[in-house]
Amino acid sequence: MWNLWEWNEAARSMVAGGSKGAAVRAKRIGALAVAAAVMTLAACASSHVIVGVRRPAISPGDVVIYLSPPAKYEEIALINTTSRGSWSLSAQKQTDWVVERLKVEAATLGANGVLLQSVSERQGSSIVTGTSARSGGGALAVGSVVGISDHAGTGIAIFVPKT
Predict the structure, then answer these.
(1) Which of 43, 58, 73 is the last residue before a domain boundary?
(2) How far is CA 145 from CA 126, 128, 136, 151, in A?
(3) Taking 80 as the threshold, does the pLDDT of residue 21 lie above it?
(4) Which of 100, 142, 152, 153 is deepest in the core (most CB within 10 A)?
């Protein structure tokens, strides 16, 4: 898998020795690739509101999900995310995706726990398809609408001291 830098360098090497117009096109292609990457990241972004003391980032694998508050903890931030961009079709896979994103967001804030507040389904976009046929004096039309939903999750990024 190429990163954007390698892709941009490959595009430039293809036009090496070419015209000034080719170099300009290569720069535009590089700019479009960066813009696409930014839009992709924005589509799957999580967000947070700091309410406590942020700590150094840790590994998401070290973050524990809590369904009820532990005996002692410090709140770091309110966090939320969605399964948008996950390409998961089942409700369970979308829920898993949301929980994993909550852990990643908490880890970037230095939280070793997430006090789960909610995970819910929300309606997103729709896909509409249709076809029609006409024969003689009659006509037939068939269509369908498929709703695309994703899941959203909220939690509190917390730090639980080791006892």
Answers:
(1) 43
(2) 7, 5, 28, 20
(3) no
(4) 153
